[in-house]
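Hello forum,

I keep getting stuck at the same step: I have a sequence, I want structure tokens, and every attempt I make locally crashes halfway through. Rather than fight my setup again tonight, could one of you with a working pipeline run this one for me? It's a single chain of 185 residues.
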Amino acid sequence: MTVGPGSDGRRDAVRRLSTGVTVLTVRHGDVVHGTTVSSVLAVSRDPLLVGVSLRRGSLTSDLAVTSGMFVVNVLSRRQALLADWFADPDRPAGLAQFDRLDWRPDAGCGAPRLAGAVAAMSCRLQARLTTGDHDLHVAEVVEGTVGTGSPLISYAAGVHGAELHEVTRRRGRRPLTGAAATGLD
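Reply #2:
Ran it on my machine without issues. Output:
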């Protein structure tokens, strides 16, 4: 496959970045909203920062800035329907989008923490950077909880339930030779 300017190969190559599927929730006053996000990354360990990419001008992006706090719910492989629900632009607005869901309000900001998530992070916004057609929100993780189960991941333009298996890794700084140099070891 060719990868170059104007080529579909560029998008296809980016789609091969496997990422966890999350639902970002935010509350500002009486306004509550959630959206599916597959662009969350660890930015720094000290302080503990994450980056979240949201469509510029979206309700979620604007509410995250206005509120200054949000929750990242890392979905389990059993929560694919939640990913679809929060990606559906025709779902009910406000608190009604959470009516049939099991959730509790975050102690710090009141945004929904979804039951069954493999992890949830309360985040305090530190910066918003405009990047292309998205805003990159950099936030400090101020509280986190870990659940059980395997994550839901986005890969090659699809959503997949992950089964995690430990892999053999090399220790130390020995040079790679033979099959190990190509990743076939």
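The chain has one domain: 19-163. If your local run keeps crashing, start a new thread with the error log.
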